[in-house]
């Protein structure tokens, strides 16, 4: 029996699970959105961690007991065994804390149910979780997750998303009242932040707020300045193209005309 499995197949399923999770979350209407999303999210992580173990020649199975079937590692045990293979740019401790908080929500979703209002917290934690996953796949396997996902999304929402920091602080009135379960979860989040800080870890791997907004811009043909920025090679700087305008057209009034108008 191959105790390591195929890391390529594990990696392929891991990528598919993550892409499916993102696609589900971005659906315009989905009544079980957060629950399905976090289930697939942790599934993607478990498979990625097992792929990392397999790639390094390690078993992804528990020690077999007599007359019992083989069992593959849980995501927690897979993480514990794969931490030594994490790249230095991705410290495992804050990643673990992030996954543990998401795992608590996942366990309730699978075996029970979650109180309303958790979606705001999941939105913030999951954004960081997806970023950690993307970075891990690139550093360990050389795979760019963003190449598989189209970010050209049609904005259909009317109400802007809730700011997670304001929600945690209780400064927003846009969401239903918080329950004791949510406050307990926020307390666990605060403890996780303190734990990561105490060990000198990067709290940005635990929770990072990403803001996405849409702004109405004037038409490009009426722009006064067009600026494009591209990577430099040491000798060439960013590109800046200034649109030249005839001042007689943009400012047609003379001094006496201005004085006459302003009296």
Q: What string, H for helix and E for strand, traces the elements in order? A: HHHHHHHEEHH
Beta fraction of the residues?
Answer: under 5%
Regions with little confidence, pLDDT below 50 for 5+ residues? none
The helix-and-strand class reads mainly alpha
Shape: elongated
User: Biggest β-sheet, characterized?
Assistant: 2 strands, antiparallel
Mean model confidence by pLDDT: 79
Task: Figure out the total of helices.
Answer: 9
Helix content: 40-55%
Task: Let me know the number of strands.
Answer: 2
Using the CA coordinates, give the radius of gyration. Answer: 25 Å
Q: What is the distance, rounded to the nearest whole angstrom, between the alpha carbons of the first and last residues? A: 94 Å
- Total individual domains: 2
Can you list the strand order of the major beta sheet? 1-2
Q: How is this structure best described in words?
A:
- The chain is mainly α and 263 residues long.
- It folds into two domains: 199 residues, no CATH class; 43 residues, no CATH class.
- It has nine helices and two strands.
- The protein is elongated.
- The N and C termini lie far apart (94 Å).
């Amino acid at each position: 029996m191959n105790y390591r499995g195929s890391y390529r197949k594990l990696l392929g399923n891991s990528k598919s699970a993550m892409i499916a999770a993102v696609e589900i979350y971005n659906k315009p209407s989905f009544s079980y959105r957060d629950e399905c999303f976090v289930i697939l999210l942790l599934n993607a992580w478990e498979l990625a961690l097992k792929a990392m173990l397999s790639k390094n020649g390690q078993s992804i199975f528990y020690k077999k007991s007599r007359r019992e079937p083989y069992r593959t590692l849980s995501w927690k045990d897979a993480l514990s065994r794969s931490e030594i293979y994490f790249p230095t740019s991705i410290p495992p401790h804050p990643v673990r804390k992030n996954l543990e908080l998401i795992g608590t929500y996942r366990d309730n979703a699978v075996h029970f149910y979650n109180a309303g209002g958790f979606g705001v917290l999941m939105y913030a934690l999951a954004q960081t979780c997806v970023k950690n996953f993307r970075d891990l796949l690139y550093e360990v396997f050389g795979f760019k997750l963003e190449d598989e996902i189209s970010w050209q999304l049609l904005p259909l929402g009317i109400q802007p998303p809730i700011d997670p920091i304001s929600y945690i602080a209780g400064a927003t009135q846009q969401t239903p009242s918080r329950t004791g379960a949510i406050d307990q979860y926020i307390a666990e989040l605060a403890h996780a932040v303190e734990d990561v800080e105490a060990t000198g870890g990067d709290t940005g791997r635990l929770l990072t707020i990403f803001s996405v907004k849409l702004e109405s811009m004037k038409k490009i043909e009426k722009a006064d300045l067009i600026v494009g920025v591209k990577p430099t090679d040491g000798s060439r700087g960013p590109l800046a193209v200034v649109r030249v305008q005839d001042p007689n057209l943009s400012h047609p009034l003379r001094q006496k005309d201005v004085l006459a108008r302003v009296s």
